[in-house]
Kynureninase
Amino acid sequence: MATDFDWTRSQFHLPEGMIYLDGNSLGPMPLATPERVARTMQPEWRDLLITGWNKAGWHMKPETIGDRIAGMIGAEPGHVVVGDTLSIKIYQALAAALALRPGRGVILSDTGNFPSDLYMAQGLAKTLGDQTRLVTVAPEEVADHLTEEVAVLMLTEVDYRTGRRHDMKALTEKAHAVGALTVWDLAHSYGALPVDLAGCGADFAAGCTYKYINAGPGAPAFVYVAPAHADVAETALQGWQGHEAPFAFEHDYRPASRVAKLRVGTPPVLQLAALEAALDIWDKVDIEDVRARSIALSERFIAGVETRCPQLRLASPRDPERRGSQVSFHFEEGYAAMQAIIARGVIGDFRAPDIMRFGITPLYIGEADIDAAVEILADVMSNALWDRPEYKVKALVT
């Protein structure tokens, strides 16, 4: 059944007069979320108190929700677990992959990767000592640097700044050909385009749920471990929730089986409730439909901006198959220009040094929104409305 995008739009709270093109950073609130979170608070937390861990199923939600996510990213059941932050899950996946390739010391990534992923890799390499190091190359040069020195290829499938998309299947195959493992960050893929981890042969992956999935600020991340590694992979963060018997309170760590060993701390139950509300919408969505509509809307936006705003230069790949669900433009005064259009009700964001970034999110954005956004952006650019002092004062969060 084709996705009903009128219905999906009706499932979100969208402030009157706002065109929200920043769902690639933080999705809007589903209308069902407050009631779903409130139900977890009362009667569950209010009346069940600590018995809610058993009676309300709180303790197993990282795995039951993990299975719901697995079905959306082409992962095998029982191989995705939810909890903690994306940085933590990247660290765990990277550490586990490195341990499976003893004698190799190179973590290969690209210069377009999200900085937090690189920071995690740098910190882990420092902990492991001189034998391990992070090497970053230009995104288009990754395949050429896959050699037998590489232990792990760590990439974000879709570049957070430009939307450039890596070929997950091809690069995974190339990595395996030289004996390396892969860790894929799906932060800008999950909910934006079809993902087939099993079909691509991915070894490890992680992603967040607060962008295209719309689970709310601070919503938990997830991690995937392929069946081939699930029983032998080790976790560098041996939290009590990843213990085989957490309530035995043993002094020594015994890892749980398969992906459950990558649980760390106590599940964030209220955030998981918000995630469940968001996933209820996705149960009625076909990601292929989302992708097709995303491309159509993105092409419409690019054509409009390039016709009306010659000052802006496309930063995203022109071929829609080579980009995710965002469109980015270079402009030297991009921060000020973005503040000017935000003041007029079009919400995008800015990424240093000069990128204006717009998320194309079909669950709640349509052609009329795209056309109206182009009109406002054209007015700001053609009349230099961005050239005001208040728009050039950078806020803490950009």
Notes: The mean pLDDT is 97. The longest strand covers residues 150-156. The radius of gyration is 22 Å. Residues 337 and 386 are 5 Å apart (CA to CA).
